User: Which sequence fits this backbone?
């Protein structure tokens, strides 16, 4: 059985079919990119896996567990973490506090115990340590006590990545992590993703429009168009696929 198995996922919103019988598999430790034009259904699939959306049909199996029967908060407890296309950070909180949030589902504290400070100090210390380790790995310790507001966009992207890393992910889903970055930042990000995969034995599912990075770090690519899978395979094979060139990459793809 594959580490992540998407089986016949269909998502309908009224009369609109956002995903149409989508199936693909990812092996453990693999970096897989999900690409396609805007509106192809990529983020919809991310929202199904992370339990923001319920699929109309189909299942998503992660390490033998059907994620579609779990509550959203149980997904991270299984080791599934994601970043968002639009930054989802708290501007007024410090960088360290934002990253600490990434591991909150692995604690026992609830609203009442947190308010009364019952047995939460040791957990808070553990959260800070885990968050600091993530910040250190991503070269962010120099801004740890700085509010997120006002920090450069590239730094904010790394903070969101650190927050996901702090939760001890097994499957890391990255939704357009290179969006808005400079060329040098994109190059650094690609190297960082591969290093994190290697250091933490992560499986990575990546949605990204920056094709140079996709082709450079992905071991497998799945291509969507209008909610349907039109290609799947190794980067070189996908790059040369006529259906992919027509629907998404364009004739210049083979010149890169």
Assistant:
């Amino acid at each position: 059985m594959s580490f992540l198995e998407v089986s016949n996922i269909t998502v309908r919103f009224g009369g609109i079919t956002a995903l149409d019988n989508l199936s693909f598999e990812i092996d453990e430790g693999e970096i897989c990119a999900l690409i396609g034009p805007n509106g192809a259904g990529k983020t919809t699939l991310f929202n199904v896996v992370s339990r923001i959306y319920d699929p109309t049909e189909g299942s998503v199996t992660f390490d033998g567990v059907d994620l579609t029967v779990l509550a959203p908060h149980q997904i991270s407890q299984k080791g599934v973490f994601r970043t968002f296309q639009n930054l989802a950070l708290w501007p007024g909180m410090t960088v360290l506090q934002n990253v600490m949030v990434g591991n909150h589902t692995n604690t026992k504290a609830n609203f009442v115990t947190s308010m009364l400070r019952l047995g939460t100090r040791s957990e808070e210390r553990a959260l800070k340590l885990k968050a600091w380790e993530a910040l250190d790995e991503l070269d962010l310790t120099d801004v740890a006590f700085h509010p997120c507001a006002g920090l450069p966009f590239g730094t904010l992207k790394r903070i969101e990545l650190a927050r996901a890393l702090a939760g001890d992910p097994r499957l890391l889903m990255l939704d357009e992590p290179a969006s808005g970055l400079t060329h040098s930042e994109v190059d650094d990000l690609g190297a960082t993703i591969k290093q994190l995969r290697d250091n933490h034995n992560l499986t990575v599912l990546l949605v990204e429009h920056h094709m140079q990075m996709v082709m450079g770090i992905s071991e497998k690519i799945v291509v969507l168009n209008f909610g349907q899978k039109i290609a799947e395979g190794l980067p070189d094979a996908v790059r040369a696929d006529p259906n992919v060139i027509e629907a998404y990459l364009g004739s210049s793809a083979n010149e890169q």
About this structure: The longest strand covers residues 16-26. The chain is about 40% helix and 25% strand. The radius of gyration is 19 Å. Residues 40 and 226 are 5 Å apart (CA to CA).
